[in-house]
């Protein structure tokens, strides 16, 4: 028995030795092609083994290969590499000539794919002509299903289509696949690091029994958070086609983790939002019909709540259909902060106007609302991307309410289709703030070199003011009952970098206009706009303010009837800015043409202008007009719309045919307007700089032939109220010569205040002060006090000798009041030949020809001292009209009772005197005898009527 044990031990040792030594005696390297061919048939991609191959039979049959490479379909590039692979086989099956793979271990596999993942998965296995894998044969039937597949420290990377974007990365992958054989209940358990997050994958699949379905469960778990993805359902196999139905849920924890996991580029506000990201639904996959149905879809985030359904089919050309309903949508979360000034070229312009304009070629657009999120140079825009879609798409989306710019946008509807790159936009509509309805429809081809969408747009607003404020484009100081009803119907033409608004019919507050626009779609948009208006009353848009001391604002343009004070302010609450101002975030150019515009109750005809907006500053290249209160000319300068007064400057250059109309336009004294109406054409120059501390507004007027020269500047009074400093003034009118005029006019809330006015009038020194206010009955009331010393009269009448010769000068002291067009003053006149106190009335009404009327002259202390032996008095009226002195009911009374009553006219033309006098009565006439006797000699046209009693 002992020898039997020895023999058995020797045999066993021989078998073991043979099992250990025999595989080492075989040249396994020569079997590389056959082993690679077996792997190719299993996975469908070319396989190359560069490393050594080793085999062992004891204790378990095992084949080990190193340096394994999996190539792409062309056999050019590596899709995957495996540092080392270990395959174990079932020993008993090897004895029967069958290869049964019990386990497969992949050590440090590295998979590297491009963005075309579906293309890789569709790759067909590499087969020979006989349908089997090419290469050497190991002989006999082979079973290649592995009961267990083990992965040790694997890596998966997939490059993105954008070369500048980081690749999608899965690393440190380790785990097992149990029962990988067909027909077995398979369990997959893997762990790894995906985009920097540690994840666990668990999957259990039961094989279907004949025609029945079998359960399947799939769970992807984030070690730091809750489960990310869970799928539970049933699957079946029929005629080699897979069917799958069940439910799924996605819970991303927070949006930042989803962005990091998927590698998506999300707006900062969305990426930083807290709360759960969750998607739930049911699905049904029919492999035979090549369709996928998703029902009861529900997606919820802090910024989004969507329900609906979707479907896909991929027999022939793939097609995707979406029917979605959003109950909550926060668009503010999807809008990134405004970009920098990149691409800030001029707004689109062109020879034919903005409608046919092209963006400035020097401007390099960097991003637009239609660009990819990366906005990198050369990144494909949305329209071009639609043209390259490998599937047709239909979308029916409705949103009950979406938050945008901190306001709810309601009833958003998007319906359209994409068919082989051709887009049909059936409806894009929304209800914006201000009772605004927006509707767009169009059709376009996205497959050409320049994608184009053409259609029509309609915009109707009940409150344009609120819409503009919400859009960040406030227009302040406009009457509360204006900027209300607005409508626009136009054609549109949309390209990736440009939007054209064509043949727009616009109506605002009953005013109609035609317009066209071109919008450059870039990080900093540019707008070219052309507007033509037949008629507009700009006075209706002026705010009307009540005096501060009133009991509440009077009804006016800012306060509709029935509303005053705080109530009116509440109505104008729409004027508050509901979002950040965007005036400085785009550039614009406006070509404006108005047939007739009314401003300050003055018609402006043929208004033509060009304005440019850049960085919140409007540059007025030129605005010309004619026949505005007799004024024609042009404006230029710049105006800030973002409150930067330092950059505001306006200038006007033109000519006035009637300076009286200009004074009336400025609501100046009526009698001044009447005097200035006699001055001919006057050149006007006005400049305005609100940031200037010295003189923000400077006015200069120069009449023809020196009839008028006037300069003034706007400043501030002692109390900070606006003031007009008269710098210089010279005027000739109605025989008056005014020169060296200087003074200050202030504008407190209640009235104009003339602090001082000095100058020279007909050689006399003029000093005046006073005030001008508007009374409750609408009439102007002028109160004035002053003096005129040394008024020269002999320069005009020096050649007249005899009974009416005047020499010397006159001084006037007094005060007066004007209401409407009547002027009344109490004055003391002192001259070298008579002194007078009385009432002076000046009438300069536009329909009246009289200029100066002297009434009730009394108390003549030294009258005609050279002609009469005793003092006399004068009663009646003397009227200066059109250069003639007219006596009306004039009575000269001597102290002894003598009376001379006469009426008539004295004409003075070029220092020649003509007279037509009617003597009605003479009593105690000796004192008048010499006057009457010498009158014809000195006044040859003197005509006397009636009897002249005489005691001598």
TrEMBL record:
Biased-composition ranges, Low complexity, are 343-377
Which ranges carry the AsmA domain? 4-113
> Which cellular components does GO assign to this protein?
plasma membrane
Which branch of life, at top level? Bacteria
Region feature (Disordered):
125-144, 335-377, 547-570
A single Gene Ontology biological process assigned to it is: regulation of protein targeting to membrane
Q: Which Pfam families match?
A: AsmA
UniProt-listed InterPro entries: AsmA (IPR007844), AsmA-related (IPR052894)
UniProt cross-references to PANTHER family, sorted A to Z? DUF748 DOMAIN-CONTAINING PROTEIN (PTHR30441), PROTEIN ASMA (PTHR30441:SF4)
Q: Write down what this protein is called.
A: AsmA family protein
Q: Which organism is it from?
A: Hwanghaeella grinnelliae
